[in-house]
Design brief:
The structure is a single chain. By secondary structure, this protein is α/β, with parallel strands linked by helices. It has a single domain, classed as Maf protein, CATH 3.90.950. It has six helices and five strands; from the N terminus they run H-E-H-E-H-H-H-E-E-E-H. Helix 1 runs parallel beside helix 6. The longest helix has 21 residues.
């Protein structure tokens, strides 16, 4: 499925259900929002997308607790969860999605290598966090960002199909 097909299917599924989605992104740098809004009619289901690279803005814009950032860091399942729940709360959307990770080429550590990404999807039924390790040979910054964004959107589509 191409990115356009993913966005078109997502927008249609959200429209059919009368639902809205909002995003907060770190490592994908707005790509998730771009893919969603590539589909015609996306303005009916997408009201807000935020890109936050600093911990300060994660706290200020979507309410990620400073304690979570201090204890676990920006690249963690706890932060991804707080980001998704925060964007859903701030925007009033039915679904909040988040990405946080290390797209590289630098910034990785043995504990958190380049290609480590956490994604989260928050709905009224709870929040699901997914860990991705996109460290395959040739996995550059662009590959990591695109794969992370597509994974989130495919996971949202699967969630909508199963509910």
């Amino acid at each position: 499925m191409t990115q356009f097909e993913i966005s078109a299917a997502l927008v249609e599924a959200l429209k059919l259900r009368g639902m809205k989605i909002a995003s907060v992104e770190s490592c994908t740098a707005g790509l998730l929002s771009k893919i969603i809004t590539d589909a015609p009619g996306s303005s009916e289901v997408f009201d807000l997308g935020i890109t936050t690279y600093s911990n300060e803005m994660k706290t200020k814009m979507v309410g990620v607790p400073e304690e979570i950032l201090a204890a676990y860091g920006a690249v963690s399942p706890e932060t991804a969860r707080a980001m998704a729940e925060g964007i859903r709360r701030v925007s009033g959307a039915d679904i909040g999605v988040a990405t946080t990770g290390i797209a590289g080429p630098g910034g990785g550590t043995p504990e958190k290598p380049v290609g480590l990404v956490y994604t989260a999807i928050s709905t009224c039924q709870g929040t699901r966090v997914t860990r991705l390790l996109l460290d395959t040979p040739g996995a550059d910054r662009d590959y990591i960002r695109h794969t992370a964004a597509e994974t989130v959107l495919k996971n949202v589509l699967d969630l909508l199909k199963n509910n």
